[in-house]
Amino acid sequence: MTTDTRRALVVRGGWDGHHPVTISDSFVPYLKDRGFTVETSEDLAVYDDAERLAATDLIVQCWTMGSITREQSANLAAAVRAGTGLAGWHGGIVDCFHDHGYHLLTGGTFVMHPPGYLDHGYEIVPQRADHPIVAGLDDFTLHSEQYWVLTDPQIDVLATTTFPPDEFHDRPAVMPAVWARTWGQGRVFVSTIGHKPDDFDVPEVRTLTERGLLWASR
């Protein structure tokens, strides 16, 4: 526990099927225990306030679908470029906002997932196994949605998931699932895992998400 006070802003809303309040609330005590003051916003208008974003050390975004204005997107990107951290999981960070600038910032966007929930695995990238977000974690399996994403080649991929061949693809596809990146002076953490609250009952999922929040923060 640290005595330094940092400011976290949780921006949550959009499609209720991703449980934005329930899941984001589950991380608030963790952040508070590590010295953050935590504010929440359920209105994207918070991204209109460039000064507030610049004064925030960590923005946790949990907002599926929805629309962001060009000015809001530019304010968010500018804050991160100046040192504010950005972090999130699943649809709350990659299935939102049809805005090119936003997707350049996060380093990826959701495309599809196979119907329903299925058992599938996640593999820690061996060359990145010493990264603080995944250090000491083993590969793990999950019964949930598996995200197919399009990503920036310059992200730092920490974990992957593999899609088997299907009617459209004649060979397995290894897909980025957890990644980190820098954007100017700021850091961005993205996990595609976390469709439902009990996904975070898997110890590896909870741990890498908590670590990702801290890693991204200023």
Automatic annotation (TrEMBL):
Location of the ThuA-like domain: 7-216
Q: What is this protein called?
A: ThuA domain-containing protein
Species of origin reads Streptomyces niphimycinicus
